[in-house]
Write a structure and sequence with these properties.
By secondary structure, the protein is α/β, with parallel strands linked by helices. It has helices spanning 14-29, 55-69, 134-138, 140-146, 159-165, 204-208, 216-228, 246-249, 254-262, 284-290, 307-313, 319-332, 351-364, 381-385, 392-415, and strands at 2-10, 33-36, 43-50, 128-133, 152-153, 186-190, 192-193, 212-213, 233-237, 269-275, 294-300, 337-344, 368-373, 421-430, 433-437, 449-452, 503-511, 516-520. Helix content is 29%, strand content 20%. The strands form 4 sheets. A 6-stranded parallel sheet has the order 6-9-10-11-12-13. A 5-stranded parallel sheet has the order 2-1-3-4-5, sandwiched between helices. The chain has a 5-stranded mixed β-barrel with strand order 14-15-16-18-17.
């Protein structure tokens, strides 16, 4: 156990990740050493930033709380961790998620944990356990009574109280205000919080409240700070991107924000996430066309196409309007890659409605698409007004059929890129490949470009990045990026001639259903 060392575990989406990064900056400023999502939790304090969006995410968050809570229980003498080694956790020894049993009393068995084996292998004692985020925001009373191992429960927005409980005050003027946990060349920029939409199935407004935009100048200053420490790619996120500015400026200001962001020197890529089709700010599209550093990419959840389902979902858009929306996007921004999310199994989706969804997907040919089956969320309009009467096996069959269709579309989209020259940014080395992305690929969720190590000339260049989970020691000198381990070398590496975080022009040589394969044209970064 490392004293005054805080492990922060982030569940769920990139918006939660930004919240964790802000908390990390405050904790380090207060004198703590901080690690984010470490492979092994060794700190004496653990903070879990939970997700409460849908059933699977809630279950994952609860299991993580239970798993970390077990670290507060005394271990049998034979299982007590020493300062030099951790006790391994056996997956086969896992107990059911509803079990309240502690470590196994059998001397021959490894300790067991609720919900399965602890993913971050090893057992180190835990002194304090804190939980924050969406799950605790929504279910605070129930969780407090059910999981007494937790020392403090906090919602999504009361982090200052968490810091106060650790004996320190929140510094509203701390600059920089966050510690980047992603690879150092990209970051997420959260421009607003909350959502004024009231889609019938969605619990997000119940958790986050009404839409609240950040001032433009605050966002631009954060971007400048990130550029100063080497961030090149900015993934702009919000619960509802296209509503940005309505509360502050009484107008949709997303076009102005992105236009000004693109003018900041050093901003190489801007990618837009989580737009909404109803009342879309069309003035944004000329901004995308005007700036080469704004990716031809838009993440916009459409959910469905059949009018009865759209009405039941309270999407405030029709099938005809949705078709026209996609067509206009493609006409006004040639080559744009659209990422969307679709839902199957919402109450009212009969066979005809699902067939319409398949037909729409074939027509739209989304370059990137994810889908999920409807999950009834208590407190939402759908849960209160409709019966969740579509059997789970029907939902899953529809989901599988939709994703098989999208897999074929994705394969055709990717195959069409073979022979083209694409600009990629290198994220990492994995096995025998450099892993990169084009402007059409958002981190974590989209396809990647694989460049064989053997295809790259052997001249030495700089390479490397700070591994995820590396500790961030306390320091009076502020920094936006996580500390680099002492044994990390960013110097010449003959085996790694491409540089992590640099752009290269590559020729696409082949494709599979999702990923691309390429060789670099030259062994120097592109401008």
């Amino acid at each position: 156990m490392k004293k005054n060392h805080v492990d922060i575990l982030t569940m769920g989406c990139s918006k939660n990740l930004v919240d964790s990064e802000r908390l990390m900056a405050q904790l380090r400023h207060a004198g703590f050493t901080v690690s984010h999502d470490p492979e092994v939790c060794r700190g004496d304090i653990c903070v879990i930033n939970t997700c409460g969006f849908i059933g699977d995410a809630k279950e994952e968050s609860i299991n993580m709380i239970l798993q970390q809570g077990q670290r507060k229980q005394p271990l049998p003498p034979a299982a007590s961790p020493s300062s030099s080694a951790a006790v391994p956790i056996s997956a086969s020894a896992a107990v059911p998620a509803d079990s309240s049993a502690g470590p196994s009393s059998s001397p021959s068995a490894a300790p067991s944990w609720p919900g399965g084996a602890l993913p971050r292998a090893g057992v180190f004692p835990l002194r304090r356990l804190y939980v924050m985020g969406c799950l605790s925001e929504r279910y605070l009373a129930e969780l407090q009574s059910e999981i007494p191992e937790v020392d403090g429960w906090y919602g999504k927005f009361d982090w200052p109280r968490l810091l106060s409980d650790l004996g320190h005050a929140w510094d509203d003027h701390l600059t920089p205000g966050r510690i980047i946990t992603t690879p150092s060349h990209y970051a997420y920029i959260k421009i607003s919080e909350g959502c004024d939409r009231r889609c019938s199935y969605c619990a997000i407004p119940l958790i986050t409240g009404r839409h609240r935009s950040r001032p433009i100048e605050d966002i631009l200053e954060e971007v400048r700070q990130l550029v100063a420490i080497g961030v090149k790619e900015f993934n702009v996120i919000a619960q509802e991107l296209t509503y940005y500015g309505v509360d502050l400026y009484h107008r949709r200001a997303i076009a102005e924000l992105i236009d000004r962001m693109a003018d900041i020197p050093g901003v190489c890529w801007i990618r837009l996430h989580y737009a909404y089709p109803t009342d879309f700010p069309w003035e944004l599209l000329p901004v995308i066309n005007r700036h080469e550093n704004i990716c031809r990419y838009l993440d916009i959840a459409l959910q469905h196409i059949a009018d009865p389902v759209l009405t039941a979902m309270r999407r405030h858009i029709t099938s005809e309007q949705t078709y026209a929306f996609i067509q206009r996007l493609r006409e006004e921004v040639p080559g744009i890659h659209i990422r969307t999310t679709l839902m199957v199994g919402h109450p009212g989706e009969d066979d005809e409605a699902f067939q319409q969804l398949l037909d729409f997907t074939r027509w739209a040919r989304f370059e990137r698409m994810g889908a999920f089956a409807y999950s009834e969320e208590e407190g939402t309009h759908s849960a209160e007004a409709y019966s969740d009467d579509i059997p789970d096996d029907v939902k899953q069959a529809r989901l599988s059929r939709l994703m098989r269709l999208q897999q074929r579309i994705s394969a055709e989209v990717q195959e069409a890129k073979v022979g083209t020259i694409q600009r990629v940014i290198i994220d990492r080395i994995e096995g025998d490949y450099y892993i990169g992305r084009t402007q059409y690929d958002s981190p974590e969720v989209d396809p990647e470009v694989l460049i064989p190590l053997a295809a790259v000339p052997s001249e030495a260049c700089l390479s490397g990045s700070s591994p995820a989970g590396s500790p961030v020691p306390s320091s009076s000198a502020p920094s936006l990026s996580a500390a680099v381990p002492a044994d990390f070398s960013a110097g010449p590496s003959p085996s790694s001639p491409l540089s992590i975080g640099q752009f290269y022009d590559v020729r696409i040589t082949s494709a599979d259903d999702f990923d691309l394969y390429a060789t670099p044209l030259i062994n120097t970064p592109s401008a």
